[in-house]
Design a protein that fits this description.
The protein has about 400 residues and is mainly β. It has helices at about 5-35, 330-340, and strands at about 45-50, 50-55, 60, 75-80, 85-90, 95, 100-110, 115-125, 140, 145-150, 160-165, 185, 190-195, 200-210, 215-225, 225-245, 250-255, 260-270, 280-290, 295-300, 310-315, 325-330, 350-360, 375-395. Strands 2-8-7-4-5 form a five-stranded mixed beta sheet, with no helix packed on it. It has a five-stranded mixed beta sheet with strand order 9-15-14-11-12, with no helix packed on it. About 20% of the residues are buried.
Length: about 400
């Protein structure tokens, strides 16, 4: 049985329609892998553990909350950190260190296994550390003060700053293991006095409002002072007097060798003429504790026409030193202390103690059974030859 032409045409049209629909469905399926026309596009999401950091610090970026419709899966995360660095990861977390200051736009592109994408961005502010500018002298003399001035320091973002000064890198005052961060002084300007010859180093730390800090090591050269030393000979006198009765004493204390070296001395005690016989006698003693030396004498009458007297003298107490030379030292006080305390040249230093005692004022010839003169006047004269130290600073 033969089909009619009309029936045949209908059959062909039906076949073509089926083929066309299958083709359209196939094309649609192929296109869905690159244009998101399949199950759907991913949904990206990103957070950072910190959005404000300092130069040199790191940030953790987390895009693990990103999603993609089933049955697709996220295949990779494409990171652009905004500072010229990029990275591709399979995991949705990454770490990045920023070594330059500024504000950076960070982008993550989430890609699923069909090639569909979605992106998210966020901003990271990277704070720069303060810039330190410090003014201080190249050198100072021992005992002088140096002004350390960091007022020209600045923060690139214009933030307020704190200043901490460590005066000695050889000492860890706070015992934290870092000798550069001690806080011996605060503020943009400080002052330090140095007494030891040589190079002396310290540090200044400047911190901004985001705790970004910079440190600068400074070194000052400390040079010695030059002094001219002269020992000037002086002869000085001391006089004391008084009146003592039998058995009484008078104590006298003084320091005759301050800032000097004593060479010799002579002490003479003289009594007033006694109006009644016999003549009176006194004793005179001296004690120099620092030198461990003492002496005592009693007045005698070598001539009845002269007053009773006695002497204590001491010669060559110390050597006569070199004089008129120039020497380097940290300070005049240090040099003076050294010269005055040279071993073997300290005789006579410190306190001297004199004691005058009326040892024999009785009896005189009595008048009406009464001693007419129960005491006597005395005078003590002390003559000292000493070398006084004169120190004057001279130029370099």
């Amino acid at each position: 049985m033969h089909m009619s032409v009309t029936t045949l045409l209908k059959a062909v049209k039906a076949e073509l329609r089926t083929f066309f629909c299958v083709g359209i469905l196939l094309i649609s399926t192929l296109l869905s892998g690159c244009s998101g026309m399949g199950p759907g596009n991913p949904n990206s999401s990103m957070v950072a553990d910190r959005e404000i950091i300092n130069v040199g610090e790191s940030v953790n970026f987390d895009a693990r909350t990103s999603s993609t419709p089933e049955p697709t899966i996220i295949d990779e995360f494409r990171w652009n950190f905004g500072d010229g660095n990029t990275k591709i990861t399979k995991q949705g977390i990454v770490n990045h260190i920023y070594n330059q200051a500024g504000t950076f736009e960070v982008e993550v592109i989430v890609v699923n296994d069909e090639g569909a994408t979605d992106s998210t961005t966020l901003s990271i502010f990277v704070n720069s550390a303060p810039q330190i500018e410090i003014d201080f002298p190249d050198f100072i003399k021992t005992g002088e003060s140096a002004l350390l001035d960091a007022t020209d320091s600045f923060d690139p973002e214009g933030a307020p700053m704190e200043y901490f000064w460590d005066f000695d890198l050889n000492v860890d005052d706070d015992s934290d293991g870092d000798p550069t961060n001690d806080k011996n002084s605060e503020g943009p300007v400080t002052e330090i006095t140095l007494i030891e010859v040589g190079n002396h180093s310290g540090a200044v730390t400047v911190v901004d409002d985001n705790d970004a800090s910079s440190i600068l090591i400074w070194t000052i050269r400390v040079i010695p002072r030059n002094f001219r030393v002269v020992w000037e000979e002086e002869i000085i006198e001391f006089d004391w007097n008084g009146y003592l009765e039998e058995g009484e004493s008078r104590e006298i204390e003084h320091i005759p060798g301050s800032n000097s070296r004593i060479v010799e001395f002579t002490a003479t005690i003289t009594l007033a003429r006694d109006l009644f016989l016999p003549e009176d006698n006194f004793s005179l003693s001296i004690n120099i504790p620092e030198s461990g030396w003492s002496s005592i004498v009693t007045t005698i009458h070598e001539n009845i026409t002269q007053n009773a007297s006695a002497q204590i003298e001491k010669n060559e107490m110390n050597n006569i030193p070199e004089s008129g030379y120039t020497v380097s030292a940290s300070s005049a006080i240090e040099l003076e202390t050294s010269l005055l305390n040279q071993p073997g040249e300290r005789f006579g230093q410190g306190n001297w103690k004199w004691i005058v005692t009326a040892v024999d004022c009785d009896p005189d010839i009595p008048i009406d059974d009464i001693d007419p003169d129960q005491g006597n006047d005395w005078q003590l004269n002390l003559v000292i030859t000493r070398l006084t130290l004169r120190i004057s600073e001279v130029g370099i």
